[in-house]
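User: Quick sanity check before I run a bigger batch. Here is a single chain. Can you write out its predicted 3D structure?
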Amino acid sequence: MLASSTVPENGMLASSTVPENGRLTSSTMPENGRLASSTVAENGMLASSTVPENCMLSSSTVQKTAMLAGSAVPETAC
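Assistant: Done. Predicted structure follows.
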């Protein structure tokens, strides 16, 4: 879990941009939960060396629960 007051016990970010289904309310997020961006390859992973095979960003802000420190990423988005 992130050591932040914005993360409650259920592991979801206390943010108005994250609905109950755990998906970002953004025009860049289609219904399938993938980013509509040229950086997303066909397998749903970011075409970047920062994303290992386990579909998690290699960053200290990403915990094993696959959540970002700025936005919640559900496991089904991978």
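The chain has one domain: 2-67.

User: Great, the batch can go ahead then.
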